[in-house]
Amino acid sequence: MRDSPFPQRSTIILVLIFAILVGALFMLGRLLWDSPGDNLAEQLHEQSSYPPMAEALPMDTESYEQAAALALRHAESYGTFTPGLSEAEYRENIRSAARLADVPEGVALVPAEEAYQLLSEQRLTTRGTAQVTGIDYLGATSIELRVEITAVAEEDGAVPLDLGSHALLMAQEDDEWVVAGTGWESDTTVGH
Question: What is the H or E stretch that residue 14 is in?
Fold first, then answer.
Protein backbone atom coordinates (compact mmCIF):
# COMPACT_ATOMS: atom_id res chain seq x y z
CA MET A 1 0.00 0.00 0.00
CA ARG A 2 1.11 3.56 -0.62
CA ASP A 3 1.78 6.01 2.14
CA SER A 4 1.95 9.15 -0.01
CA PRO A 5 -1.11 11.38 -0.39
CA PHE A 6 0.01 12.34 -3.97
CA PRO A 7 -0.99 10.32 -7.06
CA GLN A 8 1.58 8.10 -8.72
CA ARG A 9 3.59 9.37 -11.69
CA SER A 10 1.88 7.01 -14.20
CA THR A 11 -1.55 8.23 -13.11
CA ILE A 12 -0.52 11.86 -13.66
CA ILE A 13 0.77 11.05 -17.17
CA LEU A 14 -2.46 9.25 -18.11
CA VAL A 15 -4.60 12.14 -16.84
CA LEU A 16 -2.49 14.64 -18.83
CA ILE A 17 -2.78 12.58 -22.03
CA PHE A 18 -6.54 12.29 -21.55
CA ALA A 19 -6.84 16.06 -20.97
CA ILE A 20 -4.83 16.82 -24.12
CA LEU A 21 -7.02 14.50 -26.21
CA VAL A 22 -10.22 16.01 -24.83
CA GLY A 23 -8.89 19.50 -25.53
CA ALA A 24 -7.93 18.58 -29.11
CA LEU A 25 -11.36 17.06 -29.76
CA PHE A 26 -13.00 20.15 -28.33
CA MET A 27 -10.97 22.45 -30.63
CA LEU A 28 -11.69 20.28 -33.69
CA GLY A 29 -15.40 20.28 -32.89
CA ARG A 30 -15.37 24.04 -32.49
CA LEU A 31 -13.64 24.53 -35.85
CA LEU A 32 -16.18 22.33 -37.56
CA TRP A 33 -19.11 23.96 -35.77
CA ASP A 34 -18.00 27.51 -36.63
CA SER A 35 -17.99 26.88 -40.40
CA PRO A 36 -21.15 24.90 -41.25
CA GLY A 37 -21.74 24.27 -44.98
CA ASP A 38 -18.29 25.48 -46.06
CA ASN A 39 -16.08 22.89 -47.64
CA LEU A 40 -12.31 22.82 -47.32
CA ALA A 41 -11.68 23.91 -50.93
CA GLU A 42 -13.78 27.05 -50.46
CA GLN A 43 -12.00 27.84 -47.19
CA LEU A 44 -8.58 27.40 -48.80
CA HIS A 45 -9.57 29.57 -51.77
CA GLU A 46 -10.78 32.36 -49.49
CA GLN A 47 -7.43 32.29 -47.70
CA SER A 48 -5.34 32.13 -50.90
CA SER A 49 -4.08 34.86 -53.17
CA TYR A 50 -4.71 33.04 -56.48
CA PRO A 51 -7.87 32.71 -58.59
CA PRO A 52 -9.64 29.39 -59.25
CA MET A 53 -8.26 27.39 -62.19
CA ALA A 54 -11.16 28.25 -64.54
CA GLU A 55 -10.54 31.97 -64.00
CA ALA A 56 -6.77 31.68 -64.38
CA LEU A 57 -6.83 30.08 -67.83
CA PRO A 58 -6.51 32.49 -70.76
CA MET A 59 -9.33 30.79 -72.69
CA ASP A 60 -12.87 29.92 -71.67
CA THR A 61 -14.57 26.55 -72.19
CA GLU A 62 -16.67 27.72 -75.12
CA SER A 63 -13.61 28.95 -77.06
CA TYR A 64 -11.78 25.70 -76.36
CA GLU A 65 -14.73 23.63 -77.60
CA GLN A 66 -14.98 25.69 -80.80
CA ALA A 67 -11.26 25.35 -81.49
CA ALA A 68 -11.27 21.61 -80.73
CA ALA A 69 -14.31 20.96 -82.95
CA LEU A 70 -12.63 22.73 -85.88
CA ALA A 71 -9.36 20.88 -85.24
CA LEU A 72 -11.16 17.53 -85.25
CA ARG A 73 -13.01 18.35 -88.47
CA HIS A 74 -9.68 19.26 -90.11
CA ALA A 75 -7.89 16.19 -88.69
CA GLU A 76 -10.64 13.79 -89.79
CA SER A 77 -10.22 14.97 -93.38
CA TYR A 78 -6.71 13.43 -93.44
CA GLY A 79 -8.27 9.98 -92.99
CA THR A 80 -11.06 10.44 -95.53
CA PHE A 81 -10.07 8.86 -98.84
CA THR A 82 -11.56 7.36 -101.99
CA PRO A 83 -9.42 5.16 -104.28
CA GLY A 84 -8.45 6.96 -107.48
CA LEU A 85 -8.31 10.35 -105.77
CA SER A 86 -5.30 12.37 -106.93
CA GLU A 87 -2.98 13.89 -104.35
CA ALA A 88 -4.11 17.38 -105.44
CA GLU A 89 -7.78 16.42 -104.93
CA TYR A 90 -6.94 14.85 -101.56
CA ARG A 91 -5.16 18.05 -100.43
CA GLU A 92 -8.08 20.18 -101.65
CA ASN A 93 -10.49 18.05 -99.57
CA ILE A 94 -8.30 18.71 -96.52
CA ARG A 95 -8.09 22.45 -97.26
CA SER A 96 -11.86 22.72 -97.63
CA ALA A 97 -12.70 20.76 -94.46
CA ALA A 98 -11.96 23.69 -92.15
CA ARG A 99 -11.05 27.34 -92.55
CA LEU A 100 -7.28 27.84 -92.81
CA ALA A 101 -5.36 30.88 -91.57
CA ASP A 102 -4.58 33.61 -94.03
CA VAL A 103 -0.78 33.31 -94.15
CA PRO A 104 1.66 33.82 -97.04
CA GLU A 105 1.89 30.66 -99.18
CA GLY A 106 -0.98 29.12 -97.19
CA VAL A 107 -0.97 26.68 -94.29
CA ALA A 108 1.31 23.71 -94.90
CA LEU A 109 -0.48 20.41 -94.63
CA VAL A 110 2.55 18.60 -93.21
CA PRO A 111 0.98 15.15 -92.65
CA ALA A 112 -0.87 15.15 -96.01
CA GLU A 113 1.85 13.68 -98.21
CA GLU A 114 2.58 10.70 -95.97
CA ALA A 115 -1.12 10.13 -95.23
CA TYR A 116 -1.92 10.17 -98.95
CA GLN A 117 0.80 7.58 -99.64
CA LEU A 118 -0.48 5.27 -96.89
CA LEU A 119 -4.11 5.59 -97.96
CA SER A 120 -3.46 5.16 -101.69
CA GLU A 121 -1.48 1.96 -100.99
CA GLN A 122 -4.48 0.53 -99.10
CA ARG A 123 -6.85 1.13 -102.02
CA LEU A 124 -9.85 1.33 -99.69
CA THR A 125 -12.54 3.92 -99.17
CA THR A 126 -12.00 5.30 -95.69
CA ARG A 127 -13.42 7.92 -93.38
CA GLY A 128 -11.27 9.77 -90.94
CA THR A 129 -11.66 9.76 -87.19
CA ALA A 130 -9.74 11.94 -84.80
CA GLN A 131 -9.39 12.41 -81.08
CA VAL A 132 -7.79 15.23 -79.12
CA THR A 133 -5.24 13.62 -76.80
CA GLY A 134 -3.67 16.72 -75.27
CA ILE A 135 -2.99 20.42 -75.25
CA ASP A 136 0.59 21.41 -75.99
CA TYR A 137 0.06 25.17 -75.81
CA LEU A 138 -2.76 27.39 -74.56
CA GLY A 139 -2.97 31.12 -75.16
CA ALA A 140 -5.76 33.69 -75.16
CA THR A 141 -6.25 33.52 -78.95
CA SER A 142 -4.43 30.34 -79.92
CA ILE A 143 -4.16 26.73 -78.85
CA GLU A 144 -2.04 23.80 -80.03
CA LEU A 145 -3.84 20.49 -79.80
CA ARG A 146 -2.33 17.02 -80.05
CA VAL A 147 -4.62 14.87 -82.19
CA GLU A 148 -4.60 11.14 -83.03
CA ILE A 149 -5.87 10.44 -86.55
CA THR A 150 -7.17 7.11 -87.85
CA ALA A 151 -8.55 6.09 -91.25
CA VAL A 152 -11.39 3.60 -90.85
CA ALA A 153 -12.20 1.49 -93.90
CA GLU A 154 -15.83 1.34 -94.94
CA GLU A 155 -15.41 -2.35 -95.86
CA ASP A 156 -16.08 -4.91 -93.14
CA GLY A 157 -13.06 -6.66 -91.68
CA ALA A 158 -10.49 -4.07 -92.77
CA VAL A 159 -8.05 -2.97 -90.10
CA PRO A 160 -8.12 0.77 -89.25
CA LEU A 161 -5.02 2.61 -90.41
CA ASP A 162 -3.24 4.70 -87.77
CA LEU A 163 -2.15 7.99 -89.35
CA GLY A 164 -0.27 9.07 -86.25
CA SER A 165 -0.28 11.84 -83.72
CA HIS A 166 -0.32 15.36 -85.09
CA ALA A 167 -0.13 18.85 -83.66
CA LEU A 168 -2.67 21.37 -84.91
CA LEU A 169 -2.19 25.03 -84.11
CA MET A 170 -5.54 26.78 -83.94
CA ALA A 171 -5.77 30.58 -83.87
CA GLN A 172 -8.47 33.20 -83.80
CA GLU A 173 -8.67 35.26 -86.96
CA ASP A 174 -11.47 37.84 -87.31
CA ASP A 175 -13.20 36.35 -84.23
CA GLU A 176 -13.27 32.87 -85.83
CA TRP A 177 -11.09 29.85 -85.18
CA VAL A 178 -8.83 28.79 -88.05
CA VAL A 179 -6.16 26.14 -88.61
CA ALA A 180 -2.88 28.08 -88.46
CA GLY A 181 -0.39 25.21 -88.60
CA THR A 182 -0.02 21.46 -88.78
CA GLY A 183 2.79 19.11 -87.89
CA TRP A 184 3.87 15.84 -86.32
CA GLU A 185 3.42 15.88 -82.55
CA SER A 186 4.74 19.26 -81.31
CA ASP A 187 6.57 20.11 -84.52
CA THR A 188 3.90 22.55 -85.69
CA THR A 189 4.75 24.49 -88.81
CA VAL A 190 3.00 27.82 -89.15
CA GLY A 191 2.51 29.03 -92.70
CA HIS A 192 4.52 26.59 -94.80
Answer: helix 9-34
